[in-house]
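Data deposition worksheet. Section B asks for the primary sequence of the deposited chain exactly as it was used as input, without tags or linkers unless they were present during the calculation. Section C holds the resulting structure in token form. Section D is free text for depositor observations; keep each observation to a single sentence. Incomplete worksheets are returned to the depositor.
Section A, Depositor: J.P.
Section B:
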Amino acid sequence: MSESSILPVRGRAVRPSGRHRRPVPSHLPPEAPALVLATLGDASGVAADLAALIRGDNPQIEVRLAGLGEDGKELTSELEDAARERPEDGTAAIVVPLLTGPHPVADGLIARAVASSGVSVTVTESLGPHPLLAEALHIRLAERDLARADRMRLLNVSSPVDGVVMTTVGGENAAAEAQPTAVLLASRLTLPVLVASLDSAPEVAGAVERLRGIGAQRIALSPCLIGPEAVLGLAEAAAAKAGADCAEPLGAHGLIADLAARAYGSVLAAG
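Section C:
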């Protein structure tokens, strides 16, 4: 779906394209839709930190945060509250999933919550693929000394690793959707980057074996995860089993906050 075709629909989710995101306007009218961040689990930790970053950088936006829990009722409540503060004929909220890719459980919970709310809501796509996501992954690798931080010196400094496995959760579809981000990350690192899933095929062990088959000895895992969507320590355990190093998940990185705000801004620009 192109951004130009976005229309708010009462009671169901619409997924506009997130590939060409625009910044949020510096001034918004009081009736502008709320930005509702939807996260797996509860509204704490990394998700709360990201919400705080977005509020700090975009004080003109009303930012709400809803944990999806097991039934999505918290998101339904947030959407209903947002609708009560806005004109009945307008879009009450723009829901931005705090996910780097599709996730069947989260997507289902969000769709049911939107339907239960009965209000006019737009749901954006997940935050990836996007160049800013690849940049954040690069930074997390560099923080663990698993990548060169300065791309200007790529020809002069040897790489700390020979290959990278970018890991996802959410099944095979999420892994497939992550391929463009892997290409962008490979371009930044000038290294082979393969995608593997932590909860389905393609498996981490297979990706590591493929890299070793082309001569890579030092391999790092790059979790393409914000955090709440995966069991704590899942990526680290997979890395240890495969004999690889592991970067930190993306977490509350400023670039992730920027991507969420841009997803919101793109819906406004297309309206």
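Section D:
Confidence is low (pLDDT under 50) at residues 1-19, 152-156.
The radius of gyration is 19 Å.
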